[in-house]
Each structure stands twice: as structure tokens, then as C-alpha cells.
Design goal:
- By secondary structure, this protein is an alpha+beta fold.
- Helix content is 40%, strand content 17%.
- A four-stranded antiparallel sheet has the order 2-3-1-4.
- The longest helix is centred in the first third of the chain and has 11 residues.
- The chain is globular and about 45 Å long.
- It binds inosine-5'-diphosphate and magnesium ion (MG).
- Inosine-5'-diphosphate (IDP) binds next to loops.
């Protein structure tokens, strides 16, 4: 089982897409193990996007991501990192296929409504950056035996 970090960005929250996004993860069969609705500081976002610090859009991205609340979540499941990235679509919504979150629900690369960890290593880092150990729910999904062989 893998855990991945997913966040509905401030644009997704403002556009009322939290429910639609949660629905897609629930319907896929992923298990929600942690969630919180918070406005992150600019410093927190700078840490989150540290790998992109040399990109021209880094400052604007961190400012935007801290401009309003985000829905931060950890979803668990088999191949959760890879499957989540496929559900999200490409970074640029214009390259995202219909059926993906970005391909269905947004248009512009700077307002692409959702974040998902890109590798298992980054997922671990991001989960640790956003959540403390006591913020995780420990339970079994009743659908578990019907999702996995
Ligand atoms: P990802 O979110 O698909 O993993 P990254 O390359 O990690 O994409 O970039 C992080 C975020 O930075 C993107 O989701 C998007 O919001 C923003 N971003 C990426 N490239 C551009 C760009 O060329 N212009 C403006 N914003 C960008
Ligand atoms: Mg990324």
C-alpha cells in the first residue's frame, strides 16, 4: 500500500470542486487517511515546492498557493502515487485528457486546481510536511476485500 499527498488548491476550493475531487478518489477505491482544510503560509508553500525554486513561476506559485484555503489530504491504496498522477492529468490542463481532473475541470496551467505527489519519495516528504502522526485515522475500509484480491 502506498500513501500520496493530494491537495485541492485555492482555485479548486473557490470553484467549489472539493466534493467532485473527493468523489473521484472515493469512487476509485482509495482510502482517505488524513485531511484538513487550511490556509498554508507562503513559507510552507516555498518548502513544499522547493524543487521548483529556480523556476520563473516559483514566487507567484507560492504566493497563490498561500492566498486562500486548500484541502490537504492523504489517500492510501495500491500504486496510489502513480494512479493519482494519472487521475490528475498533465500539469498543463491543455495537455490533459478528458476524464482526468485537470482535463475535465480546468483550463490554465497556473490555475490547475489540484496537487498530487509525483514520486513515492516526494509523497513521503509531502505527507510529513503537511501532517503530524496524530492526524492520521487508523481504520479499515469495509470495501477493502472487494477492492483487492
Ligand atoms: P505538477 O503539479 O503537475 O506536479 P509541477 O511541475 O510540479 O507540476 O509544478 C507545480 C505547479 O506549478 C503546477 O501544478 C502549476 O500550478 C505550476 N506551474 C507549473 N508550470 C508552470 C508554468 O509554466 N507557469 C505557471 N505555473 C506553472
Ligand atoms: Mg509536482
Amino acid at each position: 500500500m502506498e500513501r500520496t499527498f493530494v491537495a485541492v488548491k485555492p482555485d479548486g476550493v473557490q470553484r467549489g470542486l472539493c466534493g467532485e475531487i473527493i468523489k473521484r478518489f472515493e469512487q476509485r477505491g482509495f482510502k482517505l487517511v488524513a485531511a484538513k482544510f487550511i490556509q498554508a503560509s507562503e513559507d510552507h508553500m516555498k518548502q513544499h515546492y522547493l524543487d521548483l525554486k529556480d523556476m520563473p513561476f516559483y514566487a507567484g506559485l507560492c504566493k497563490y498557493m498561500s492566498s486562500g484555503p486548500v484541502l490537504a489530504m492523504v489517500w492510501e491504496g495500491q500504486s496510489a502515487v502513480k494512479l493519482t498522477r494519472m487521475m490528475l492529468g498533465e500539469t498543463n490542463p491543455a495537455d490533459s485528457k478528458p476524464g482526468s481532473v485537470r482535463g475535465d475541470l480546468c483550463i490554465n496551467i497556473g490555475r490547475n486546481i489540484i496537487h498530487g505527489s509525483d514520486t513515492l519519495e516526494n509523497a513521503k516528504k509531502e505527507v510529513d510536511l503537511w501532517f503530524k502522526a496524530e492526524e492520521f485515522a487508523n481504520y479499515t475500509l469495509c470495501s477493502q476485500p472487494f477492492l483487492y484480491e
